[in-house]
Amino acid sequence: MDEQRDTALSEAVRLRETGTRQACEQLRSLSDRYPQEAAIAYQAAWAHDVLGLERAAVPFYERVLSGSGLSAEDRHGAFLGLGSTHRVLGDYASSLATLRRGLEEYPGDAALQTFLAMALYNVSESREAVGTLLQLIRHRCNPADGVCVRRPDGTRR
Description:
The protein is an all-alpha fold.
């Protein structure tokens, strides 16, 4: 990125962190000027999302996930953000598809699995939702911390 773009993006991120709508305006403008910049689109999605402007966040998230150029951490955040946003908007099919796609890229990720379980619950797939959460707990079992699922006879599962 060039210096002017970097400065504008830094200022917009600072505004996002303070929770102002001005961040959305600046990030939309930057995104229009630099449509191929995944980092700008991701920040625009995030800014809209945290301000409760979920519908406006969706196209930015979709742009980010359809391209490349984002760090693995931010790409993961985009899957989580879009999956969660679709769920909040009641678009459970899109939420499930996004979260499952995220899990293909980030297998076993606890945050994606948790949101997947919530979306499964929303579509009355309670058995699969609970199964997903139980698998999550099972794989996060740490005997040293005493955090494990135990059978009634005291043995670990």
